[in-house]
Amino acid sequence: MKCPTCTNDLLKSKLDNFETGFCNACRGMWFDSFTFEEFKEVESPFSVLLDIDIWKDAKKHKVSPSTKTCPQCTKRLYKTEYSTSGIILDICPICQGIWFDRGELEKVISYIDKEISDETISALWGELGNEVKEFLIGQESIEKEIKHVGLILKLMEYKVFSQFPVLQDIANSMPL
Questions:
Q1: Same domain for 28 and 75
Q2: What is the mean pLDDT of the chain?
Q3: Is pLDDT above 60 for 50?
Q4: What is the pLDDT of residue 119?
Q5: What's the pLDDT tens digit per position in 55-83?
Q6: Considering the entire predicted model, what is its pTM?
Q7: Backbone angles phi, psi at 80, to 5 degrees
Q8: Do 27 and 83 belong together in one domain?
Q9: Which of 18, 79, 122, 145 has the fewest CB atoms inside 10 Å of its own CB, making it the most exposed?
Q10: Does residue 108 surpass a pLDDT of 80?
């Protein structure tokens, strides 16, 4: 595979046990769609709650042609902003891979972490309702939906105890 930025050969690389294509020259990184989603969950476990999916919500994302070529299928890549982050990524509409120029991956992970830390408790209640609805409709596997519900509840616990430390003290003093 060739680097979309400088056309050097991409090296197979492992990042947190996930295989990526890495360019030694420009330090860019290629993820196929599934690898990036799995990586995101490991790097930022609550990231699944954001549901920023450029493939499901294509109409929400402004897309324009890029000058870069997909290293996997050799078709033209397209530029799009990752949610409202201001980070412009190169994506492939054919194989759904994502190219990260140097430093962009770290910026996306920081953006995800900030968005999650800014979530309000009421917004999390809404997310919990959405996850229960998805569980009942069966859009994803039962295991994934149960994991998502658990993550929302854990995040709500963090939020409540950080906003109301006296509740943490009460909870800690209660016998099990």
A1: yes
A2: 83
A3: no
A4: 79
A5: 555 566 678 899 999 999 999 999 988 87
A6: 0.70
A7: -150, 155
A8: yes
A9: 122
A10: yes
